[in-house]
Amino acid sequence: MPEFILNPPEVESTPPILYPRGPNEKDWANKSIRARVDRWFWVYEKGWFINWDQDRWPFLTIVVHHSETKSDATPDEIAQIHKNNLWIPCYQNPNDNDPYVFGLEPHSGHCINGRETFCCYHHLIYPDGKITTELQALTKINDVWFIDMVGWHAGDWAINNQSIAICLIGDYTYADPSETQVKALIGLINYYKMFNPNVAVVPHKKVSRRTICPGNHWFGWEPSIPWTMDMSSLI
């Protein structure tokens, strides 16, 4: 059993926001037919939504990020950044036809405590050690822990589907996170090791060559994190 464990704040997952049933019955019928053959579409009597979490995998990985923002950026500010940079472009890209979202109003399908969120991290950690929960991390299916809400954080869809994203709030490109922040990160990693003792713990830049996240200033704090550099467990 790890010596230091921090349980993340609990949140309530609530039903996703539905796209309203349109006036065009032919279009609605087409969506209903597609829903029976396409895992992305979930159709109900009063509306429908796109299930971005349908590709969830068993929990294998923790990816550590930094936000590259001011150190007091709020969860809503982080979510807005992700909505602007990730979700809206996906819905406005005419070449991205999977799962047929071009032209629709952006929906994440992730509703926490009754509010839709576009945040792509499961947890945020602030310099004072405060931890927030932005996405429901795990769900148990047939006695196996799977990722529940898939975060768009790694730049790799396969990694997204198997990983929990933890973000240190602040810009640590050339600076250290606080000792309290690092201690909270270690406690949160140890908490999730109770669900998978062999979980791979990696910095974002180890799964994406397009980023230096969570920063280049490693010598002050990196040695204290229980990284797993064996990439064989990653897809």
Quaternary structure of the protein: single chain
Please give the alpha-carbon distance between the first and last residues: 28 Å
- Count of distinct strands: 12
- Average predicted local confidence, pLDDT: 86
Q: Tell me the helix content.
A: 10-25%
CATH superfamily of the largest domain: Peptidoglycan recognition protein-like
Biggest β-sheet description: 5 strands, mixed
CATH architecture of the largest domain: 3-Layer(aba) Sandwich
Gross geometry: globular
The low-pLDDT segments are 231-235
Q: Strand order, biggest sheet?
A: 8-7-11-4-12
Describe, in plain words, how this protein is organized in 3D.
By secondary structure, this protein is an alpha/beta fold. It folds into 2 domains: 17-50, no CATH class; 54-75 and 108-223, Peptidoglycan recognition protein-like (Lysozyme-like). Helices cover 22% and strands 18% of the residues. It contains 4 helices and 12 strands. It has helices at 25-37, 75-92, 157-162, 179-193; strands spanning 19-20, 41-43, 47-50, 61-66, 111-112, 115-116, 123-125, 131-133, 138-141, 144-147, 163-168, 200-203. The strands form 4 sheets. It has a 5-stranded mixed β-sheet with strand order 8-7-11-4-12. The protein has a 3-stranded antiparallel β-sheet with strand order 1-3-2. A two-stranded antiparallel sheet has the order 5-6. Strand 2 (41-43) and strand 3 (47-50) form a beta hairpin. The longest helix has 18 residues, at 75-92. The protein is globular, with a radius of gyration of 19 Å. Mean pLDDT is 86; it is low at 231-235.
